[in-house]
Design brief:
The complex is a heterodimer.
Chain A lengths: L1 E8 L10 E7 L9 H10 L16 H16 L7 E5 L5 E7 L3 H19 L6 H15 L3 H12 L4 E3 L5 E4 L6 E4 L2 E2 L4 H8 L1 H10 L7 E4 L2 H11 L3 E5 L9 E4 L2 H14 L3 E5 L4 E8 L2 E9 L2 E3 L6 H9 L4 E2 L6 E2 L5 H9 L13 E3 L11 E4 L6 H14 L3 E8 L6 H4 L2 E7 L4 H4 L9 H9 L10 E5 L4 H14 L4 E5 L2 E4 L2 E5 L5 H9 L5 E5 L2 H7 L6 E6 L16 H13 L1 E10 L3 H4 L8 E6 L5 H8 L3 E6 L2 E6 L2 E7 L12 H16 L4 H10 L12 E5 L2 E6 L4 H12 L6 E5 L7 H14 L2 E6 L10 H10 L7 E6 L1 H11 L5 E5 L3 H16 L1
Parallel strand pairs in A: 16-17, 22-26, 22-27, 23-26, 27-28, 28-29, 29-30, 34-38, 35-36, 35-38, 36-37
Antiparallel strand pairs in A: 1-2, 2-4, 3-4, 5-6, 6-7, 7-8, 9-12, 10-11, 10-12, 13-14, 13-20, 14-19, 15-18, 20-21, 23-24, 24-25, 30-31, 31-32, 33-34
Chain B lengths: L1 E8 L10 E7 L13 H8 L15 H8 L3 H15 L7 E5 L5 E7 L3 H19 L6 H15 L3 H12 L4 E3 L5 E4 L6 E4 L2 E2 L4 H8 L1 H10 L7 E4 L2 H11 L3 E5 L9 E4 L2 H14 L3 E5 L4 E8 L2 E14 L6 H9 L20 H9 L13 E13 L6 H14 L3 E8 L12 E7 L4 H4 L9 H9 L10 E5 L4 H14 L4 E5 L2 E4 L2 E5 L5 H9 L5 E5 L2 H7 L6 E6 L16 H8 L1 H4 L1 E10 L3 H4 L8 E5 L6 H8 L3 E6 L2 E6 L2 E7 L4 H5 L3 H14 L4 H9 L13 E5 L2 E6 L4 H12 L6 E5 L7 H14 L2 E4 L12 H11 L6 E4 L3 H11 L5 E5 L5 H16 L1
Parallel strand pairs in B: 18-22, 18-23, 19-22, 23-24, 24-25, 25-26, 30-34, 31-32, 31-34, 32-33
Antiparallel strand pairs in B: 1-2, 2-4, 3-4, 5-6, 6-7, 7-8, 9-12, 10-11, 10-12, 13-14, 13-16, 14-15, 16-17, 19-20, 20-21, 26-27, 27-28, 29-30
Helix pairs in contact in B: 3-4, 4-5, 6-15, 9-10, 16-24, 16-25, 26-27, 27-28, 29-30
The chains are: A alpha/beta, B alpha/beta.
């Protein structure tokens, strides 16, 4: 079995809303399943494979399916929550599509690789070490996935439906879209000030500020050298703490120093951490960590160093062994307690207390084995959130405020957190920016605290999920114009609109990227733009197939039409209904409060209605279109044309919106496909909550000229002839164009066109046929780029199609688009209609603009 | 000659509205005019020739030297020498004063300073210089000045921060340095903002972090359509070369996360150069980036908020060979000789130095720093070095919009954007221009001192970002001074703000309070407590008592106030300290807050205290007079001018503007007025101050109506306790005026046996203590005298004998008992109190808690 290709679908896709890998596997000679014995061995390590519900399929799908299950089982064993899988045959014999969910792409890809190796070893009768494989995968996942602090915030955001995007492989995560975006980096937010962070790093300045607002801090001072440290220590009174002035998280801090030697030694090691060293009074009591988020105390933990309690009988070594038998104390760092190491550091700490590992402490004596309470070296954290005295909580909030931190960990030393600090000589010893949450999320003892949720609530008020309105538009023809119309309606409302389409990316009318931008990358780019207040995203099939959607959910999904389909034969899409399944993805991912806007005259589009989790609006050129009538009958919303009026209606009645005669782009209502685009746009805008006034203004002002809608039915006069410039390139589009120009007055008709080589022969023949039936003169051209066909082949097929045409008089061929356009212009006479089907839109329009101006001038 | 004491007056003070030093100079035998010291004039004018600029006395150039020649005193000379030394060190200030004190031979010399440490060092150097000049000893003038200059460089704010501070000051926003570095607080309390060079408190830590990560920055910019050079991170020299070929030569090679243009190699085209650059760049950061080379000039564009506020174009440095000098020599001759180039902050351009990058550029031209280029060859020295030509007005609007977007997507509120473009007045895309870097905390120097073009008001732009126009970052601030009643007025005003839901910071002789919580107890009526409250980010309104001691010692703890209240001067307390001998001199101290009233604010003054009423003309804002007697001439005159006053009519507290009257409350409804007659004055003052702060009459009345003189609300201010048929008042009176008021109030009570527990705090004149002894003898039957623990300036028994002298001068002779410890005196007095008696229990000076607690417990015990 070979893995031919692996593709990551990073957004909702034709299979599922989750992120999946689409793996193509090639089977050699319909390879059988491994032997029952080998399979059993595999199942013994991957119990997921043995579940009855996972009963493996038989026949040719058996091995690909086993592969799918193995990829998922490996991920699950490694601690990844991936469950979705599908296996299907492809068009090619022996080639199968295996779809498996992933959470982290790199982990998913590694799991695919590992599953392939495992199966090939098993099939080859070789032994496998499944536990080692799982361990490797787990460690990869731990490296890549978000740490516990960031993870807790991200999960909280996801619970609130806030979109998430990782900006790097570390802890930098972006929430929300457009203007509503926020960022976090572990336990820092985008409002965590750089200055505040610098202040927190400077313990002397921090103390000064804390003291000024009445937060108790330990007495002490900066010292200039080791000798001065000892002088300070004796002034302050022993025991003392020695620590570097700059830095945090306890590096270089020595506590409970009682002798000159200890102070001198501690000075040296503090000095290594920074330029300046402080000596402070050592406050008696226990270490607490108070977590302040957004001016509220949200969690508190007591932090105990690893310790054993004497029983007067056993040695310290024996007591440590006893404690380490606790099953909660794991070997790795994933659990809330770790084993207490009796290592060199522990022995040194014992020595300070005049003890050795063999000493037998008295009953009830507490023997400390580390000076810090780090969880990874056997320390423990006990949740005490509910016990914190309100005064102590208020002081922690004061501390955070005066430093200026929105999220901060305050280290407190006191005897009893249930009493005010002042009463007991308790002090706040340090303020930490970007505090770790693990001790609150997964304390050794006591309740976990929802600290991630607290961070999210500082980022977003309760009623916000960080989204901006998103309208996705797909279909065969009319997408770009519909996108532009909807974008214009948002702009008329005063919103900064991000728009993606086949011409590029536009932010409030300014083009920020060029080329075909109808894919997920462009969508993500618009949603990441900090200016964007609303997004209108053309969503072409290619991107959906390649990568899935660039967003997890939209408010409005518009499907203009499917018709006879376009680009059939590519990417395994052979029929219009297969194409519909791809385009349906946006409809499937409408939010529950959202709307799908569907063309009632297009059966494949109408058929998408049940897939929409929200409501459906149908549009059509007439109220008599059956699907529209039926939808309205059921109380659904509809938008249609009656006479020259656009009417909107729902269960409560109907309303005349405006006349198409007021909408220039329809050319007095004569260009019906533009009327349809307007209906779709109106329906979409209603779904997005845009008021009629803004919609009307946008439609009245919308011009379909070269600049604003390049290649979208641009109509210009040229020396008495009418030119229609369009980018339509499939039979449906050409039919629509023909019916549009038929309504405009003219005598002779000339068309200039080419066709892309990636269309099926049948489509090219059909195009030729339409041309032959409706035009008097035809100018054909080919360009360098034939998308996989031999020179002359496209022209030959078009000519073949035309041969059955009833109207065509004359056909000429040229090499190069501009040459063909020039030839056409020269052939036109006053009163003629020229349909210019441009291919390289931008270049041709620029040329035409200059050519026409020159001719006029 | 010696300096007895040097005070650092950090706020508005006796001498000046600005910080100043006050040196007490004892001249001894040198209390003679300069003419009596041979050679002094010659030596000083030779050592410090620039003294010619001092205009002193006659008000024109040479004025001081003329005085020196014709005879002036050494204190005055010290003042001018110290000022001049500060000027020469680059920290010019223009104010000084020298005054005789009441003690012959002792002068007070006041000298302004910009930087405290510079001022002190200049005073020290000035003193030694003067001493040397007087005694004709050698003195290293140049050396001392050099040392001072170094100190100025060390402690003065850099040009970027200075421009922000100056802009804030121009907008009347208070400024305070929080560290010796560049961390500065603008504004007060809850309205404060902070800056640290060109970073604000809204500059995000994450945004800074992103700006450091060049590849992430590029990705974010690209996503928003901001053009950036294409390129990617590479892991090996081979990959660097491969990438360079892919991108198209020439390329740029630089560290992934470095800063300040170190090891950035531009326009390199050969495999050897690329590989060498890779190695050098790797040392500066955690990885290496290979990018397209973008042709054009380096520009630095400063984005503040949503605007481009300045843009500067860089200058490529070339030298031209002459066939004689080496490259290094040519650099010094042709480039570094430019007067604009230098090391100091005043120089718009840095000297050109050959670094790695420049050496590589040279190598590519076949040269080293020691090569001698042939005559006429142009040698490229520095491609991206000095950004200096202001081009702000040329920036194309599309370019500005894109750069604002760039700063926004990174998340920086202030960003320095490095842009390579041939012409910043054209859109970037059409010229293949690109943004190459975004810097947080950008230096502002290039925009403040461009080599050509106008300086740009970048400090102003940053201040505008922090404080929208019309906001000055101030919280309501009222300052209360005077002899008696300060604390009561302060507490009344604090109550008013509290009722408005404001978190009040209160500093008074009882302690420092924030939102009612005591941060500290004891006498906190000084500048440190005031400054501390104004630093606190929760404080929404500040009520600050300003005692005489603090003003004299350190000046005020704030720069300006909305309202300054002077309750009274009367017979001033604490005379005789700090050479303040007369009530008139005390006026000079207590006027300080009045001098600092904002133009929109008010001075609240007692009309019937001539020393106070006379301060009216000092207020830069308005004046509200208060006086219980509505027809007092001062009040009448003020009223006739249509101005505000507060008085009592028919037992009602009224606010009057000209002829208009508005009743605040009936005095009978105010518990404080009922408790003691002297509180009426406090209520008048507080009502006037409340008016000045914008409180309405009903708001004021509501707050005062439920203000009772309980030990909680007003500790140590005539708190009344009763037990076993006796009444005890705890009060903090410590001077003649206060004692007289208390006695007057006691007289209104039914006559019983009268007892007083009494002493005097530190710093009182003998005559004042005797006067109080006399008053006590006349009003009380039994006196329990003690020794106030603060009175360390007195020998044991001294206070007792002073009081006794006072008592003996009285008509009546009361029984006198002496218990040195306050607590013993109080306990004995309480035990002694017969039924029907009335006792005045004095609290120790500025430590009211003890007495209040003991008497409270006495009353409690008796009841239980």
């Amino acid at each position: 079995m070979d893995v031919v290709s692996v593709r990551a679908l990073r957004g909702p896709n034709i299979w599922t809303r989750r992120t999946v890998l689409e793996v193509k596997v090639q089977l050699v000679d319909g390879a059988p399943l491994p032997s029952p014995a080998a399979l059993a061995q595999l199942q013994s390590h991957l119990p997921q494979l043995a579940l009855p519900a996972q009963n493996l399929r038989s026949g040719p799908l058996a091995l690909p399916h086993l592969f799918e299950r193995t990829v998922l089982a490996l991920q699950q064993q490694a601690g990844v929550a991936a469950t979705f899988g599908r296996t299907a045959p492809s068009d090619d014999p022996g080639l199968y599509e295996v779809v498996v969910e992933y959470v982290e792409e790199e982990v998913g890809r590694r799991a695919v690789e590992m599953a392939r190796e495992l199966l090939s070893s098993v099939l080859g009768g070789k032994g496998v070490d499944v536990p080692a494989t799982v361990k490797a995968l787990r460690s990869l996942d731990e490296n890549i996935r978000l740490g516990p602090t960031t993870g807790s915030i991200v999960k909280a955001a996801q619970r609130r439906g806030i979109p998430i995007r990782r900006l790097n492989t570390g802890s930098l995560v972006q929430f929300g879209w457009g203007v509503r975006q926020r960022r976090i980096l572990a336990a820092e937010t985008d409002t965590t000030g750089a200055i505040a962070e610098s202040i927190a790093q400077d313990k002397e300045l921090t103390k000064q500020l804390l003291r000024s607002v009445g937060v108790p801090v330990p007495d002490g001072r900066n010292v200039s050298d080791a000798e001065d440290a000892w002088v300070a220590a004796t002034d302050i009174g022993l025991p003392v703490v020695v620590k570097p002035r700059y830095g945090n998280q306890g590096r270089g801090v020595a506590v409970n120093l009682k002798t000159r030697d200890q102070v001198i030694a501690a000075y040296a090691s503090s000095r290594e951490e920074g330029s300046s060293v402080m000596v402070e009074r050592c406050a008696p009591g226990v270490d607490y960590r108070l977590l302040v988020i957004g001016n509220k105390l949200v969690a508190a933990a007591r932090r105990d160093p690893p310790l054993v309690m004497g029983d007067g009988r056993r040695s310290i070594r024996e007591l440590v062994e006893e404690v380490n038998k606790d099953p909660r104390r794991g070997e790795d760092h994933a659990t809330s307690l770790s084993k207490i190491p009796l290592d060199a550091i522990a022995l040194a700490v014992l020595a300070e207390q005049g003890l050795t590992a063999e000493s037998v402490p008295a009953p009830g004596a507490r023997v400390v084995l580390r000076r810090n309470a780090n969880l990874s070296t056997g320390g423990s954290a006990t949740d005490v959130t509910d016990e914190v005295h309100p005064d102590v909580a208020a002081r922690a909030v004061d501390a955070a405020r005066v430093i200026g931190l929105d999220i901060c960990g305050v280290d407190v030393v006191c005897e009893d957190i249930r009493r005010p600090l002042e009463e007991q000589g308790g002090v706040m010893v340090e303020v930490n920016a970007a505090p770790g949450f693990r001790m609150h999320l997964d304390p050794s003892y006591g309740l976990p605290r929802p600290v991630g949720d607290a961070v999210v609530s500082t980022l977003y008020p309760p009623d916000s999920n960080g989204r901006v309105p998103v309208v996705a538009v797909t279909g065969n023809n009319g997408k770009t114009t519909t996108v532009r119309l909807i974008a214009a309606m948002f702009r008329a409302l005063g919103r900064t609109v991000g728009m993606t389409c086949t011409d590029g990316i536009y932010v409030n009318g300014r083009r920020v990227d060029t080329g075909d931008c109808s894919g997920p990358k462009s969508a993500r780019s618009v949603l990441a733009n900090p200016m964007v207040e609303a997004a209108v995203l053309e969503t072409a099939r290619g991107g959906v197939l390649r990568e899935g959607l660039g967003f997890d959910q939209c408010d409005v999904a518009v499907v203009t039409n499917i018709g006879e389909g376009d680009h059939l034969g590519m990417n395994g899409i052979h029929t219009p209904s297969q194409l519909a399944a791809v385009k349906r993805v946006i409809v499937e991912n409408v939010g529950a409060a959202g709307t799908a806007v569907l063309n009632a005259a297009d059966p494949l589009t109408v058929a998408m209605a049940p897939a929409c989790p929200g409501s459906v609006t149908m549009f059509a050129l007439s109220r008599t279109v059956p699907a529209l009538a039926a939808h309205r009958e059921r109380g659904g919303r509809v938008v249609f044309l009656e006479g020259s009026d656009i009417i909107t209606a729902d269960g409560h009645g109907e309303q005349r919106f405006m006349s198409v005669l007021e909408i220039p782009v329809t050319r007095g209502g004569k260009v019906l496909f533009q009327v349809e685009n307007c209906l779709a746009a109106v329906a979409a805008a209603m779904g997005a909550g845009i008021p009629f006034e803004a919609m009307r203004k946008a439609l009245v002002d919308f011009e379909s000229d070269f600049r604003r809608a390049p290649g979208r039915f641009n109509v210009v006069e040229h020396q008495g002839a009418t030119l229609v410039v369009d980018y339509g390139h499939n039979p449906d589009a050409l039919n629509a164009l023909v019916s549009a120009i038929e309504r405009l007055p003219h005598e002779r008709r000339v068309i200039v066109l080419t066709a892309a080589g990636d269309r099926r022969d049948a489509d090219l023949l059909r195009l030729g046929e339409i041309v032959g039936n409706h035009f008097d003169e035809v100018v054909l051209f080919e360009d360098a780029c034939n998308r996989g066909r031999a020179d002359g082949e496209v022209t030959r097929l078009l000519r073949q199609g035309m041969s059955t045409g009833r109207r065509v008089q004359k056909v000429e061929e040229f090499r190069g688009e501009l040459v063909a356009l020039e030839a056409t212009l020269q052939r036109l006479q006053p009163g003629d209609m020229g349909l210019l089907m441009v291919d390289e839109v931008e270049r041709s329009l620029n040329w035409l603009e200059k050519r026409i101006t020159r001719a006029t001038a | 000659m010696k300096i007895l004491k040097t005070l650092v007056l950090r706020g508005p003070n006796f001498w000046s509205r600005r910080p100043a030093l006050e040196a007490w100079v004892e001249l001894g035998a040198l209390d003679v005019p300069s003419t009596a010291i041979p050679g002094l004039y010659e030596r000083l004018s030779a050592w410090l020739p620039s003294l010619i600029e001092h205009r002193c006395g006659i008000g024109e150039r040479g004025g001081f030297l003329l005085r020196l020649r014709e005879g002036t005193y050494p204190g005055h000379i010290l003042e001018h020498v110290t000022l001049e030394l500060q000027s020469l060190a680059g920290s010019a200030v223009g104010f000084g004063k020298a005054r005789e004190t009441s003690t012959p031979g002792i002068y007070k010399v006041a000298i302004r300073y910009k930087e405290e440490r510079v001022g002190l060092a200049a005073l020290d150097a000035g003193f030694r210089l003067l001493d040397a000049a007087i005694h004709d000893k050698p003195f290293d003038v140049a050396g001392e000045i050099a040392k001072l200059k170094e100190l100025v460089d060390d402690v003065a704010l850099g040009p970027s921060t200075s421009s922000i501070v100056a802009a804030a000051e121009a907008r009347n926003i208070p400024v305070r340095r929080l560290t010796e570095g560049s961390l500065v607080q603008l504004g007060h309390g809850a309205r404060q903002r902070r800056v640290w060079t060109a970073e604000t408190d809204r500059t995000g830590a994450i945004a800074e972090w992103i700006a450091q990560d060049k590849s992430l920055t590029k990705r974010l910019l690209e996503g928003c359509g901001v053009p950036v050079p294409k390129g990617r991170a590479v892991a090996s020299p081979a990959e660097a070369w491969e990438t360079a070929c892919e991108l198209g030569l020439p390329v740029v090679v630089k560290p992934l996360d470095g800063n300040h243009g170190r090891a950035v190699f531009i326009e390199i085209s050969t495999q050897q150069d690329v590989e060498h650059a890779f190695a050098a760049a790797l040392q500066q950061g955690s990885g290496v980036l290979v990018e397209q080379f973008i042709p054009g000039n380096e520009h630095r564009v400063l984005v503040v908020g949503d605007r481009v506020v300045a843009a500067a174009r860089g200058e490529t440095a070339y030298v031209t060979g002459d066939g004689e000098h080496t490259v290094q020599q040519l650099i010094d001759l042709q480039l570094n000789s430019d007067p604009r180039r230098g090391e100091g902050d005043d120089c718009p351009l840095n000297p050109v130095e050959l670094d790695d990058v420049a050496r590589m550029d040279l190598a590519r031209q076949g040269l080293t720093e020691t090569s001698v280029p042939p005559p006429g060859t142009r040698v490229l020295i520095q491609r991206n070095g000095n950004v200096a030509h202001d081009v702000t007005d040329a920036v194309h609007p599309d370019v500005a919009a894109q750069l604002v977007m760039a700063a926004r997507v990174v998340g920086l509120d202030i960003a320095g954007i490095d842009l390579v473009a041939q012409d910043i007045s054209r859109p970037l895309e059409e010229q293949g221009a690109a943004v190459v870097e975004i810097n947080s905390s950008p230096g502002l120097h290039a925009h403040l001192k461009p080599a050509t073009g106008s300086p740009r008001p970048v400090g102003e732009a940053i201040v505008d970002l922090l404080f929208p126009r019309g906001e000055d970052g101030r919280v309501p601030l009222v300052c209360i001074t005077g002899t008696n009643g300060k604390t009561t007025v302060a507490r009344l005003l604090a109550r008013l703000f509290e009722r408005r839901g404001k978190l009040v910071g209160l500093a008074c002789t009882d302690g420092v309070y924030v939102g009612g919580r005591a941060l500290e107890r004891g006498d906190c009526a000084g500048p440190k407590s005031a400054a501390r409250l104004l630093l606190n980010p929760v404080v929404e309104a500040a009520v600050l008592e300003a005692g005489r001691g603090g003003i004299l010692r350190e000046g005020l703890g704030f720069d300006r106030c909305q309202v300054a209240v002077v309750t009274n001067i009367g017979e001033p307390d604490h005379l005789g300290r700090n050479f303040i001998q007369t009530p008139e001199q005390m006026v000079q101290v207590k006027r300080t807050p009045v001098d600092m009233v904002l133009p929109t604010g008010f001075a609240v003054l007692k009309a019937d205290d001539p020393l106070v009423a006379g301060m009216a003309e000092l207020s830069p804002g308005g004046v509200i007079f208060f006086c219980a007697e509505p027809e007092h001439p001062v009040l009448v005159a003020h009223r006739e001018r249509g101005l505000r006053s507060v008085t009592v009519r028919d037992g009602r507290l009224v606010r009057e503007t000209g002829g208009e009257q508005e009743t605040v409350a009936a005095l009978a409804d105010l518990p404080l007025a009922a408790a003691a007659t002297f509180h009426r004055e406090n209520l008048l003052a507080a009502t006037a101050a409340a008016w000045g702060m914008g409180f309405s009459a009903p708001e004021t009345a509501a707050a005062f109506r439920d203000f009772h003189p309980t030990p909680e609300a007003l500790p140590g201010r005539f708190n009344r306790f009763q037990a076993r048929g006796a009444t005890a008042f705890v009060d903090d009176c410590h001077n003649v005026a206060a004692l007289r008021e208390v006695i007057r109030t006691l007289h209104a009570l039914p006559r019983g046996h009268r007892v007083a527990v009494y002493s005097a705090g530190a710093g009182r004149r003998d005559e004042d203590i005797r006067a109080q002894g006399k008053l006590l003898a006349e009003a009380f039957d039994t006196l329990f005298l003690y020794e106030d623990s603060s009175a360390t300036d007195r020998a044991p028994g001294e206070l007792f004998s002073l009081f006794r002298q006072g008592v003996e001068s009285a008509e009546r002779t009361p029984e006198i008992l002496f218990h040195p410890r306050h607590r013993d005196a109080v306990e004995k007095a309480l035990e002694y109190l017969p039924a029907g008696s009335v006792a005045l229990i004095q609290a120790e000076d500025s430590a009211v808690e003890g007495a209040v607690a003991w008497v409270q417990s006495w009353a409690g015990r008796a009841h239980s």
